[in-house]
Amino acid sequence: MSDEAPDKPWWVKASLTPFSSRAAQWFFVWLCLATAVAVAIAAFGWHVGDPFRGFVATGLAIAGAAIYWLAIRWMDKHDAWDRP
Asked: How many whole angstroms separate alpha carbon 19 and alpha carbon 26?
């Protein structure tokens, strides 16, 4: 078995740019989820802006969180995090 991690898929490379630490990835997961909640509250609770745009923006923020989370899982599974 090789000590090298396999080549990262494009979506993992994209989500790791420019921050490649696990902690930074978790920060972006929580940032995306907080953004989704804030947009949902503003669009649906306070009726700020177009509700359809709020729905789309909330969905995009949740999708962003999912991509970051999946990248964390891929990196964990393949033991691909940089070691000091």
From this structure: 11
